[in-house]
Structure formats: structure tokens, C-alpha cells
Amino acid sequence: MKMPVRSGSLPFQVAFLLLLALSSAVNINGQGSNGICDDKPSLEPRPHSVSISEFGAVGDGKTLNTLAFQNAIFYLKSFADKGGAQLYVPPGRWLTGSFNLTSHLTLFLEKGAVILGSQDPSHWEVVEPLPSYGRGIELPGGRYQSLINGYRLRDVVITGDNGTIDGQGSIWWDWFNSHSLNYSRPHLVEIVNSQTVVVSNLTFLNAPAYNIHPVYCSNVLVQNISVTAPPDSPHTVGVVPDSSDNVCIEESIINIGYDAIALKSGWDEYGIAYGRPTRDVHIRNVLLRSSSGSCIAFGSEMSGGISNVQVDRVHLYNSFSGIEFRTTKGRGGYIEEIIISHVEMENIDTAFAAIGHSWSHPDDHYDPTALPILEQITVQNVVGKNITVAGNFSGIQESPFTSICLFNISLSLNPGSLTSWVCSNVSGTSETVFPEPCPELKSSSSSTCFSLPNSYGRAAVL
Ligand SMILES: *[C@@H]1O[C@H](CO)[C@@H](O)[C@H](O)[C@H]1NC(C)=O
Ligand SMILES: *[C@@H]1O[C@H](CO)[C@@H](O)[C@H](O)[C@H]1NC(C)=O
Ligand SMILES: *[C@@H]1O[C@H](CO)[C@@H](O)[C@H](O)[C@H]1NC(C)=O
Ligand SMILES: *[C@@H]1O[C@H](CO)[C@@H](O)[C@H](O)[C@H]1NC(C)=O
Ligand SMILES: *[C@@H]1O[C@H](CO)[C@@H](O)[C@H](O)[C@H]1NC(C)=O
Ligand SMILES: *[C@@H]1O[C@H](CO)[C@@H](O)[C@H](O)[C@H]1NC(C)=O
Ligand SMILES: *[C@@H]1O[C@H](CO)[C@@H](O)[C@H](O)[C@H]1NC(C)=O
Ligand SMILES: *[C@@H]1O[C@H](CO)[C@@H](O)[C@H](O)[C@H]1NC(C)=O
Ligand SMILES: *[C@@H]1O[C@H](CO)[C@@H](O)[C@H](O)[C@H]1NC(C)=O
């Protein structure tokens, strides 16, 4: 199939991303920029392509096209061993309930193509909870399947020429707020137990809950997407790498109700038993806004562990929290080997937080003696304007947060700021940090600070 080549103006967002891409040519401390994002899969064009309209789909925004998507993908399964195939979605408004992808498939949304999530819950199948959560995240029991799903796949690409996936989530937000949901809300894209997953060149709107949720996946690339949901949409989240490794998120813009990017790995006894960490993650060149949550969050579900995460060149604005680490007693697991550098932030209530209490449990069977570990977190080269709280580090008495290293950070606080740093049960070191941190973060030894090993990215086999 021949795709029209686009030419056109450069809107603000693209100009911003170009700027980020240019600035990333500068080396960090002479170490170069080796990371997961430098090792990406090469996308071969698929030898076969069919259009969703060949399967009886109607793009009028009213006709339900679930069967057309399911039939098209069933047909395209037969091309899996022939180099794979593309499902082409032409301009139009394609209403659908949830459907499953297949391996070696590219779902391509043309410019002007909009996949619309149905607002009728009976068009969303109810599926089992994820084993690392043991129940739906919002309600005990099952959960609605996501709009676009993948199970045990290889080589799946969801892309386009800035086509749109619109979850029409307002009805789900109302049910969530009025406590009338029967199952936990669905996400837009969920890919489970899969390898080599690409989501790129698309716009995501109004997700019922999460936008992009790779779970138990390896080699995931999220690139050049835009994600938007209203500031008051309850607990909407952008991209959620969950018990997944070798993940790159880059050149994207996320403006969301709760967390923009949240790294997770399972919930209490279920996550501990499943035992699959999120590791080897690289986030760079992103513009993030989170109204009520955090631009970048680690946890609170982190029972399988989170390690080796590199965040660089991020711009965070108009948000409640900039970067937040969350855990609680009973979680087990760890958050460690995290390096965050070149952060610009403005109009943020709390720039950095690490909170070791007050997150909820799936049920009463969690083990309160399963103490999480939070250590080896390095934050450097940060400039912030109009910040209310510079850092809120509230660790766990029985398992204090350690090796928190802060270098070259300059935050200007707004006149309403009463406390710049809050610290308890935490230790670490700092150098050239303004405003001056609490004594707990001023130990003289920086020997245990996490820094990038030269072989960073060795595990990237994308
Ligand atoms: C999609 O896959 C899930 C998990 O394998 C399965 O439960 C569901 O029935 C599938 N749906 C369809 C329409 O094939
Ligand atoms: C990003 O996506 C837009 C369309 O959404 C496209 O025009 C642009 O070329 C893409 N940029 C990159 C770097 O892939
Ligand atoms: C992509 O599409 C969205 C929604 O239609 C639009 O707001 C945005 O400007 C487009 N971006 C680009 C780079 O064309
Ligand atoms: C929940 O279930 C009840 C009883 O079956 C039903 O009346 C109600 O519409 C359902 N709510 C939603 C949001 O699906
Ligand atoms: C995104 O779109 C641009 C412009 O069409 C293309 O060059 C690039 O390969 C696409 N990226 C991905 C990862 O699909
Ligand atoms: C400072 O940030 C707050 C949000 O945290 C915002 O309401 C306020 O308008 C900002 N002030 C200035 C001067 O930009
Ligand atoms: C401190 O951080 C700023 C902002 O990222 C950067 O421009 C500057 O080069 C850094 N200074 C050192 C000594 O690394
Ligand atoms: C620090 O975080 C804790 C837990 O979220 C919160 O209760 C407290 O109010 C925060 N302190 C400040 C000064 O923001
Ligand atoms: C550690 O945290 C506990 C609450 O979990 C608090 O009571 C205690 O005062 C803290 N210890 C220090 C030294 O701040």
C-alpha cells in the first residue's frame, strides 16, 4: 500500500521535540549518551497490507466495528511467517470495542484516522486480573480488557501518521467518581508477555485509565507520541512500564490527570510471588505535565523491584509533583540504581518526593514485614522555577532510604513556600544544591552514589 508523504508546518510540539533532539547531542559529563534508547529496533516495512474498510468497517463514528477489527486481525495471522502484515486504518472515525492484536503486525493509523473506544461497557470483555496484582487495581476481582490488547506476541507495531486513539473516557471517569464501576477501568493499549513492541507517531486522547501499559514485556519502544487527558480526569496515567525490561520512552509529550509516566512491578504478596522487575529503562526528551500526580513516578506498586533506570533531558511543568518514589511496608521489592539528570521544571508543587507510607494494599493477606528497599538514587543537573517544596523524603523507620545523591540542583521557591525540605528516615549526600538540603542529605561520603557504568545498555538487544 502506498502511503501519502506528508509535508506541512511545524507546530509548537514538533519544534519543541526538534529542540530536544538537537540538545541531546551534548554529552553528559563526557560519558556520551549510551542507553537503552540508543539501541532501537529497525522497522522493516510489512510486505502485506489490508485496510480495515475491506472488512466491512464503517468510519462514521456510530457503526460498531469490533468484529471488523477482530476479523481483519484473524485474517492477518496467516501472514505471521511471511514477514508479517499491516492493518491500515484510513481517515474516518472508527468506533470499536476491545480487540486483540497478533504477532508480526503493524496497526497503522493514517492522518485523520481516529479509533474511538465504545462507551458501552458490554463492548469491553471482562478478563482475569494480572497475576502480579491478584485483583483489579480499583476493585477486587476481574477488570475490563483494554481497547487494544496483545498477549504473548512478538514484533508488534502500533503506529501511524499522527492518527488518534480516543478512549472517550469521560463516561468511565464519571463511573469511577460516583463509585458505580463493577470492574476496574480499561486502558487504551495493553501488551502482556510480549517481545519487541513499538508504539509511535500517534496521538492518544481521553483514556479511561492508563494509555499504554506494557506488562511482562521486553524490548519496548514508545516514541514520538502525544498523550492528553483533562487535568481533572481521575487517575489517568500516560505510559506504565510494568514488570518489563529494555524499555525506551522518548520524544513524547504527555499532559494527563495523574501520573505522566509510572514505572511499576506488581502489588504486595502478588508482585513478590510473581517476582518480575522493571529494569533497564531509559526515558529522555519528554515534555510532561501531571495535574494531581507526578510527572515521573516509581511505584507505588513495585513489589517485583525497579532498577537501572536512566532519565535524562526532561521538561516538567504545571504539575503537583515532579519526580516521586512511592512505596510502603508490605510491598517488599526495591527501587535502586536510578539516575536522573538534566531536568527543567517550572510551576511544580513538590519537585522531588520519596514517600514510604500511606499507599493501599490489595487485601489483608500482605506481609507487613516485607520491607521495601529504596537506595542508590542520583539526581543531578536540575533547574527549577516556582517550586513550593524542594524535596519531601519520608522514609520507613525499619528500612530507611539510603544513598540518595543530589548534585548541581538549583530550585527557586515561590513566596508561598513554608518548608523547602522535609526529611525523615533517609540518608544521602549532596553537592551544590540550592536551597540547602536537610542535614540527613549532607553526609560527606559520595562513594555509594549510583552513576552510569560504562557498559550501560549492554542488555539492550532491541
Ligand atoms: C483476547 O485475548 C484474551 C486473552 O488471551 C482472551 O481472553 C479474549 O477472549 C480474546 N478476545 C478475543 C475477541 O479473541
Ligand atoms: C513524529 O510524528 C509526526 C506525526 O505525528 C511526524 O510528522 C514526525 O515526522 C515524527 N517525528 C519523528 C522524529 O519521528
Ligand atoms: C496530531 O494530531 C493531534 C490531534 O488531531 C493534533 O492536535 C496535533 O497537532 C497533531 N500533531 C502533529 C505533529 O501533526
Ligand atoms: C453495574 O452492574 C449493575 C447491575 O448489573 C448495572 O445496573 C450497572 O449498569 C453496572 N454499571 C456499569 C458502570 O456498568
Ligand atoms: C515516525 O514517522 C516518521 C515520519 O514519517 C518516520 O520517519 C519514522 O520512522 C516513524 N517512527 C516510527 C518509530 O515509527
Ligand atoms: C507558580 O506555580 C503555581 C502552581 O504550582 C501556579 O498556580 C502559579 O501561577 C505559578 N506562579 C507563577 C508566577 O508562574
Ligand atoms: C549544572 O546543571 C546545569 C543545568 O542542567 C548545567 O547547565 C550545568 O552544566 C551543570 N553544571 C555542572 C558543573 O555539571
Ligand atoms: C510530605 O509527604 C507526606 C506524604 O505524602 C505528606 O503527608 C506531607 O504533607 C508532605 N509534606 C510537605 C511539606 O509537602
Ligand atoms: C522515622 O519514621 C517514623 C514514622 O514511620 C517516625 O516516627 C520517626 O520519627 C522517624 N525517624 C526519624 C529519625 O525521623
From TrEMBL:
Localization: Secreted, Cell wall
Signal peptide span: 1-25
One Pfam family in the UniProt entry: Glyco_hydro_28
InterPro entries the UniProt entry points to: GH28_Enzymes (IPR051801), Glyco_hydro_28 (IPR000743), PbH1 (IPR006626), Pectin_lyas_fold (IPR012334), Pectin_lyase_fold/virulence (IPR011050)
Gene Ontology MF: a single term: polygalacturonase activity
Keyword Ligase: no
Record keywords: Cell wall, Glycosidase, Hydrolase, Secreted, Signal
Gene Ontology biological process terms, A to Z: carbohydrate metabolic process
Entry annotated with the keyword Lipid biosynthesis: no
Family note: Belongs to the glycosyl hydrolase 28 family.
Protein's name according to its UniProt entry: Polygalacturonase
Organism: Tripterygium wilfordii (Thunder God vine)
